[in-house]
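Please, structure for the following, as tokens.
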Amino acid sequence: MTVEKVSKPNGRPDLDFPACVAGERVCPPEDSGGPYSYEEFLDALTDKHHLEHCDTKQWAGAFEPEVFSVQQANAAVGAMFVWAKERRDQ
């Protein structure tokens, strides 16, 4: 991770949060073993000779590990940041 710029908060909760400018791959899907098992999951998903390939492919469905969206990442980060800020201010 590289921090490119740090700005002072401007008082707008919808804008005062970290922003992603680039990335690779999507996060692990729910119930896939989390970040510690992600590489193993990807191996089973992409290697047709892997013993668990068929089951993993069927379970994962339309999951595309190489697709990454800066807009989706920022929407998720922003939503979590606003939620945490609202919770803290209660």
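The mean pLDDT is 85. The CA atoms of residues 24 and 68 lie 6 Å apart.
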